[in-house]
Design a protein that fits this description.
alpha+beta; 7-stranded mixed beta sheet; 5 helices
Length: 263
């Protein structure tokens, strides 16, 4: 039997003790667990950013991985803590939409974690990563059933839908992520774009226009704008060796429209 895997995703950064404390709790409760950091550089309290990063990293992990995610502006409030199984993985995190991308493949029930059913740890109203989520993830990695740490719920919080709109000869979406290189990632997936045929016309924001898709950043000269299908299989707007977001003055939620080239 292989050692269990627990991933950690948070907005804690690495200069404070928070991530180390969570790992210490996990090591105490589940010493066999292999802990892997997905990211601790999620934008502070940016739930949508955390959901995007976790979604596209988590799908590369093997079955039974436990994903523990903490981007939690409501820590200490009445917001619930969730645990559930989806797509053969286990998920632990706050009920604020952070894990909502996984709800459409839930296997069984979604559970609200009951802290009284977890191993005794320190109790703080401001650090549930250490005192609630890490112990829950550790217990689940040891094979403890979900119904032993919580009670079923039927109304988890969802992030607003990021679905794009497809017409006969166009698709409209928006920018859902800007990475550290300034690449603008849209919510338009490859399979939707394929319906428009080759060499579409792409408009981003109110002014930028790109004709056709490239395959790699190096297909254009340094400093030039391009569009391609990025590693998440989503349409991405980039500048070769540059920063598309700054160059275009584009921010999150900016519109993107892709049309047949003859329109």
């Amino acid at each position: 039997m292989t050692d269990p895997i627990i991933t950690l995703t948070s907005d804690f950064g690495l200069q404070d003790y928070y991530v180390g404390a969570m790992k210490g709790v996990i090591a105490r409760i589940a010493p066999r667990a292999h802990v892997i950091d997905i990211s601790h550089d999620i934008g502070a309290q940016n739930v949508a950013h955390g959901a995007f990063v976790l979604h596209y990293a988590a799908r590369e992990f093997p079955p039974t991985t436990v994903h523990c995610a903490i981007v939690d502006p409501g820590v200490g409030s009445a917001r619930r803590a969730l645990a559930f199984t989806s797509a053969t993985h286990l998920w632990v995190g706050p009920d604020n939409g952070l894990l909502s991308f996984a709800f459409n493949q839930v296997e069984g029930s979604i559970y609200a974690i009951d802290s009284t059913r977890l191993p005794p740890v320190r109790q703080s109203a401001t650090f549930h990563g250490r005192d609630l989520f890490a112990p829950a993830a550790a217990r689940l990695s040891d094979g403890v059933p979900l119904d032993e740490i919580g009670t079923p719920i039927t109304d988890p919080i969802l992030l607003p839908s990021a679905t794009c709109q497809l017409g006969d000869d166009f698709v409209e979406g928006h920018i859902i992520h800007i990475d550290q290189f300034g690449n603008l990632v849209s919510n338009i997936p490859r399979h939707v774009l394929d319906k428009l045929g080759e060499d579409p016309s792409i408009r981003v924001g109110s002014t930028a226009r790109i004709n056709g898709l490239n395959t790699t950043y190096a297909d254009v000269a340094p400093g030039q704008l391009l569009a391609l299908i990025g590693s998440a299989d989503l349409v991405e707007i980039s500048v070769n060796q540059g920063h598309a977001a700054r160059q275009l003055g584009i921010e999150l939620a900016a519109p993107i429209r892709i049309e047949l080239s003859h329109t």
